[in-house]
Amino acid sequence: MRFTFQRRRFSDLSEQEVLALAISSEEDDARIYRSYAQHLRQEYPATAAVFDEMAVEEDEHRNRLIDRHKVRFGDVIPLIRREHVAGFYQRRPVWLLENLTLETIRDEAGAMERRAEQFYHKAAARSTDAATRSLLGDLAAAEAGHTDKASGYGQQHLDEGALNSEEKTKRRQFILTWVQPGLAGLMDGSVSTLAPIFAVAFATQNTWTTFLVGLAASVGAGISMGFTEAASDDGELSGRGSPIKRGFASGIMTTIGGLGHALPYLISDFYTATITAIIVVFIELWAIAWIQNRYMDTPMLRAAFQVVLGGALVFAAGVLIGSG
Q1: Among residues 110, 122, 207, 312, which is most buried (max CB within 10 A)?
Q2: What pTM value is reported for the model?
């Protein structure tokens, strides 16, 4: 037997059902704002306070709607939610919170308010009761002004010190989740593959064979580093963020680091390919030093010395082994 769920069209809803839909929507929005606040409270307490107050305002809207429903239709409110109505705006599932950035959450909240305003304008236009129409129009205006009110909350809660603190926290989280694993992968891919690639290059002087070895080493190292990073820390206690994100960052950058000096061996001439690969290695090592200086606050000379010296030693080892 096949079951289908037919959504109602908004134009087919009665005035009681429109009020019930508004009530359930305000309940959902308040719950979402409180979930945002709970998710952000530890790292972004000032922004969490903004969402707490927005949730309180949604509660006030719901209570006004319930009072109006009691006056017109009694105490029994029909069970109807936004997913029951065709074309009605949808909210992002709360369980996706772990994957949402601070900017995404703020943008989502703004979109919620704009869609709620549109809903109340449509609902008010359909209402035949003057008091209900007035209430729905007031709520539309309230949703339209919610951005300004949120800005007012920001002036109260998001002072310069709080904003600076949140920016530092956001930067730190970006470094822990993306930069550190990516940098570790880039270093591993760039440095560890030097020896096998150049050993094969000088041993065989065959550019295609060297490219295949470099490709295999880069992809294999990327897969290994990605799984190792993802499995080494779930991020719960260290605060380093999603292991999946860190695994992708590490694995992809490892592969890129190795492919950088493997791709030149697609050139058929051995000496041209080797000179090009050496130039690429030089660029890779300085890029690593720059990233360390830019994001890890490592002095440029120190970073360059460490990376270039390590890379030079591995490169020399590969050349010596391949030439032996």
Answers
A1: 207
A2: 0.58
